[in-house]
Amino acid sequence: MSNDVEHAKRALRAELRERRGLLSDAQRESAATAIGERLDALVDELDARSISCFLSTLTEPGTREFVTRAVRRGIRVLLPITRADGLLDWAVANDDDETTEGLHGLPEPTGEVLGPIAVNDVDLMIVPAAAVDRSGMRMGWGRGYFDKTIGSMEKCPPVYAVIYDSEILDSLPREVHDQPVNGVVTPSRTLILSPSRR
């Protein structure tokens, strides 16, 4: 059974990765602007003073301008740093664009490294995803970093995944360790999916 789920996830991830790869630079820029505005509004709505976010890669929905703006607004932004043991360390973002290449070739911050529990104090978590289904179940890219982080938090704040509109699906293959999110932010909307998780 588990192998069937893994196979289904792998196939779906490949399809989603290919779809993202077909977007033009103009489409990516337009999506990043719209997502940034929605994230700004979400931070204001939740009165979040401390958040965690991620530095988007070229194919992910853009978060970098949002992060820079949040820092300049005086919001404390924690950015993830991958570890070999499958956990995430964190660093406080500043408003320059300096990054380094992380463990899996992902962009990571260069600031002082804080341990995994640093994220326990945030008011809002903004996470990457490959897709999210209508029940709030999130499918990541297969390494499990955010599932482990969310699953280990004693008091988890609202968690929102940033995806493209076409990546909200009716249902997703799921495994025991998969963690749901409260909602999604896409270029066209902010959608609450599982408010009971708060």
UniProtKB/TrEMBL annotation:
Family: Belongs to the 5-formyltetrahydrofolate cyclo-ligase family.
Name used for this protein in its record: 5-formyltetrahydrofolate cyclo-ligase
Coiled coil: none
Organism classification: Bacteria, Bacillati, Actinomycetota, Actinomycetes, Micrococcales
Residue numbers binding ATP: K9, R10, A11, L12, R13
GO molecular function terms listed in the Swiss-Prot or TrEMBL record: 5-formyltetrahydrofolate cyclo-ligase activity; ATP binding; metal ion binding
CC cofactor: Mg(2+)
UniProt keyword Metal-binding present: yes
SUPFAM superfamilies documented for this protein: NagB/RpiA/CoA transferase-like (SSF100950)
